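Q: My labmate handed me this sequence with no annotations at all. I'd like to see what the chain might look like in three dimensions before we decide whether it's worth expressing. Could you predict it?
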Amino acid sequence: MKLRNMIFAALFAAVVGALGILPPITLPISPVPITAQTLGVMLAGAILGARNGALSLGIFVALVAIGIPLLAGGRGGVGVLFGPSGGYILSWPFAAYVIGFLVEKYWHKMNIARFILFNIIGGILLVYVCGISYLSFISGIPWTTAAIQALIYVPGDVTKAIIAGITAMQIKRAYPLINKSTKLHKTA
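A: Here is what I predict for the chain of 188 residues:
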């Protein structure tokens, strides 16, 4: 792996951590707070691509697991990963990978609408399926109840997908970090 890629992966792990400075919004209907950190997940995948985006979120999750309080509200530690938010957080590297995979696959056809769509697929749908399923298992509530509770997050997450899409498109035009010749099946 090139030093440049490692630096960008670490930088985006820091961006997700910095988004945790914004205080979480807790709601009485769900034990999972609203945070800005999924914006960082979407940006990492859309800007860095599959491998480097997943690496950056893998670094972030590992840092949280060892106790560094990078999550919104100053949370950290393996206990958080076994709590109600754990499924959402653990899905972040996979979400960044899916977003990056789709962006790389359609690199030459990318526009704002595709960036937004790919952020919704990876950064909302995948994260929600994992998070809702984990929350249902951990808390013992029916999956449908957890899914209904998660509907409160949709407007904010769609807004984040739009912001991430616009930002990623601007970066693609000005200083693309994904190599235009990137092939997902290419070996290193």
